[in-house]
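Second attempt. The first submission of endo-polygalacturonase had a stray character pasted in from the spreadsheet, which I only caught after the job came back as garbage. Lesson logged: always re-copy from the clean sequence file. Corrected sequence (465 aa) follows.
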Amino acid sequence: MGLQRYVFPFFLIIMSFFVSCYSNSIHEEVSVVLDHNHLVDEEEAFGYDSQAYPSYVSILEDNKFGDLINQTTDDNLPPSLKSFSKLLENKAAATWLNVNDFGAKGDGTDDTEAFGKAWEVACESKGAVVLEVPEKNYLLKPIRFSGPCRSLLLAVQIYGSIEASDDVADYGKDRRYWLMFDHVQNLLVQGGGTINGNGKIWWQNSCKINKTLPCTKAPTAITFCNCKNLVVKDLKVQDAQKMHISFQKCRNVEASNLIVTAPETSPNTDGIHVTNTQNIHMSNSVIGTGDDCISIVSGSKKVEATDITCGPGHGISIGSLGAGNSKAYVSDVTINGAKLSGTKNGVRIKTWQGGSGSASNIKFQNIEMDNVVNPIIIDQYYCDQDKPCKEQDSAVQVENVVYENIRGTSASKEAIKLDCSKNFPCERIILEDIDIKLERDEASKALCNNVQYLTEIGDVYPHCS
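This time the job returned cleanly.
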């Protein structure tokens, strides 16, 4: 295939949202369609510097595409936060607080008020602060842990179990959140404990389970909104009412050593959801839920996930993007090292008809598939509704995507499905060292519609026809 030099524009996402996630309506499918009073000019908000990246051909010739999308930002986590764990070994170096000292019982009765009082003191304390949740079982109604805080560094050590109230009435009119950390900087949440969303009552009343019921909102178990310099690690999050962990409008995030679980039949229980977040690294985590193991949606840039075990669930997804004719932008995403087993999709990019914007600079590499439906899929005709979606001309542009060293078995005949928009074809897709067969070593197929500048490198099976 003859390649010509194409210079393609990318824009550096510049977004400044100053309104609390708690008070704004955040729609799970249209994550960036916010009140226009809180948006800066669209061309600036979703603009890219056209000189920021070299051309596609030069990248390919120099074999530096992986280096390009693995660039790290200069705005890394500060050394003080990285070394925060040392403070936990030296109690004299930090202010230590315990939720029990504020009236928490940990006996299954409501401890919401005590946690709120403990947080208020921790947030107002100067220097380094550690807030301990001992090895008991604490029941909480919806609660918001708000900043900004006076503390230089703040650690929440969860040794015990935090369980959600299963009384729907406790969630009031705004049922989108259960635990919320809002506008907090230099925050560490860890400890080896469990966060339990007690989601069964919400799943039973979901319109996806019972079609006769109206569709209503359900809470995300733990939400981090407008947080900067954030570490979340060594936790088990289970049975969320809806999504398990959501990072919204955050900067500089490390999420590692997480175990996220819910039944395969639980609706909309994404494991880790990333929206409007930049410079986030997820690693060494095991996720098995009823929806996407990881979902990355609009406004997200410089996203990396390494050593992820996924299944059951719907795979690792970018999107959905462009719902409701919205603009959506995701760029600089690397999924490096993942094992997916029995999932309904593998590595997926999904966009709605009628949207606009782009999903670009994306790399999926070093991935093992075991009996996965749609191991490699780009779906630009995504339609998650009962009625058929109408044909529309516009679409989110999918471009500069690399699939490298992906192997295993497919549960569907089509192991590779690139179903791109006929009006906005996918551009510059690379398949390198791919080997995905059906079980029993049967032949698999590839479906590649509306792809421009498709390149195959090394041994690729199945081939795009």
